Structure to design on (319 residues):
């Protein structure tokens, strides 16, 4: 946003210095959006790495120390950690400070964080729909958010100036910002992101179990037959699933536990649709299969036309 003068903030505190936290810090540094960045993580190793790379100016093992005097606080931890952190920092927040987050679910984050915040602190929940399967402080890069959506879900009564500043931050990162109701966000992301991850985790497990059975049945000892066939013959489709299934287990555990209702509802619908496909195969309904595949192919084309096909980074998996 051109009208906002840099730096946008004197002090930013980023709690959680993994893929998203470190990418945001690198972006803030690159664009000169903050006077200083204070970082907090669970482990000393992450704090040391962050200081060494140089994307934070000060390292704090306590989130309470990190947020002192900060104008902007970013929660970049797994969503299951937010409640404890909000409880810990609420007394140390500067009046007028803005607090935002990057969590992949929004209703649960608002439920867990908002009740602890003092009235004079402004909460603007957010979710950059951008990511890779990598995690930790060395995985970040400032271009991660470029040309990707960032969804903000501020409750109606949120201070408009604070929403504008958080929007300006993400727009400087190159993101396309959308404002959305938190419950709507959670339903949309359940089908576009959470369910695909669940399918990936499941199918990789099914293939790996099958691998074990196939290996037990083998009689020949030729070196070729010893190679794991599922890995050996994995073509594009399965390889993409294994990449998605390499995503951080704690982050995804927290996403499913905190978006349970939406995921279960949409999983029910998905299973119905899958059963319809199963039936079409069983009864050799070629026309049904072909017309379904044709319609689905168009969706991919629409995504490419919208510039959301992941051409910048082929390793993308959005959480
Ligand atoms: P990450 O790379 O695994 O980093 C998580 C960070 O949080 C680490 O610095 C970790 O500290 C810290 N942390 C973990 N558990 C904690 C706890 N219980 N208390 C305090 N700090 C804790 O994760 P990420 O991929 O950046 O994800 C962070 C957030 O972004 C999540 O809420 C996720 O839903 C959201 N998000 C992720 C993606 C994605 O694709 N990855 C995309 C959009 C949004 P240590 O390093 O010391 O363990």
């Amino acid at each position: 946003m051109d009208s906002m003068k840099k730096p946008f903030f004197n002090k930013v505190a980023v709690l959680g210095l993994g893929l998203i936290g470190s990418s945001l810090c690198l972006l803030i540094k690159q664009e000169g959006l903050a006077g200083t960045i204070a970082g907090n993580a669970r482990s000393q190793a992450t704090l040391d790495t962050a200081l060494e790379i140089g994307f934070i100016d000060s390292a704090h093992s306590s989130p309470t120390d990190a947020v002192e005097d900060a104008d902007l606080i970013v929660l970049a931890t797994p969503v299951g950690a937010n409640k404890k952190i909000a409880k810990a920092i609420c007394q140390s927040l500067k009046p007028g400070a803005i607090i935002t987050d990057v969590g992949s679910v929004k209703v649960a984050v608002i439920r867990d964080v908002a009740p602890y915040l003092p009235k004079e602190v402004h909460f603007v929940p957010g979710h950059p729909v951008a990511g890779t399967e990598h995690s930790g402080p060395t995985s970040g890069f400032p271009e991660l958010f470029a040309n990707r959506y960032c969804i903000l879900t501020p409750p109606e009564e949120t201070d408009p100036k604070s929403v504008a500043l958080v929007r300006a931050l993400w727009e400087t990162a190159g993101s396309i910002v959308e404002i959305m109701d938190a419950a709507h966000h959670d339903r949309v992301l359940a089908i576009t992101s959470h369910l695909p991850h669940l399918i990936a985790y499941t199918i990789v497990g099914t293939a790996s179990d099958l691998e074990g059975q196939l290996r037990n049945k083998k009689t020949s000892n030729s070196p070729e037959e010893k190679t794991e066939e599922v890995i050996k013959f994995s073509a594009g489709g399965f390889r993409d699933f294994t990449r998605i299934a390499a995503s951080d287990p704690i982050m995804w555990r927290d996403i499913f536990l905190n978006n349970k209702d939406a995921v279960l509802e949409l999983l029910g619908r998905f299973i119905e649709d899958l059963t319809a496909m199963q039936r079409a195969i069983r009864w050799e309904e070629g026309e049904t299969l072909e017309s379904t595949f044709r319609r689905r192919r168009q969706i991919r084309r629409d995504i490419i036309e919208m510039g959301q096909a992941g051409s910048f980074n082929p390793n993308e998996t959005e959480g």
Notes: The chain has two domains: 9-180, 185-305. The pocket of NAP is lined by residues 16-21, 41-43, 46, 76-79, 81, 102-104, 127-128, 131, 135-136, 248, 251, 255, 317-319 (CB under 6 Å). The beta strands are 9-15, 34-40, 58-60, 72-75, 98-101, 122-124, 126-128, 149-152, 176-179.
